VOC family protein
Amino acid sequence: MAGRPRFSLATVVVDCPDAQALAEFYRRLLGWEVKFSEPDWVLLRCPDGGTGLSFQSEPEYRAPVWPERPEEQQKMLHLDIRVDDLEEAEAYAVSVGARRAEFQPQDDVRVFFDPAGHPFCLFLH
């Protein structure tokens, strides 16, 4: 084989108990568009293009704990979301269904949980 084959990251898939509900949360939070939807799978895309965000229903889904604790479900990844105004973004995230984490490790980053319990961070440019 000559060289490396071409790879292009198309979407990040997030497991959850209800793909439709979690996709609706992120659609509202990010302002992205639903590009494809089935009962147990939804694809969102930014109107400006780029990598998508998909949601897949998993009946055995267990929400991770954060901060991590031994012997409990660990997070596999989290989303870092850049915002212009941290306080305004925090209020909006809560208004669409996010829950602020009790433990906040940094002053310039806010950690939240989405409705399925996945942690995500809001941070300034």
The domain at 62-125 is CATH 3.10.180.10 (2,3-Dihydroxybiphenyl 1,2-Dioxygenase; domain 1). Residues 19-30 form the longest helix (12 residues). The longest strand covers residues 11-16. The chain is about 20% helix and 35% strand.
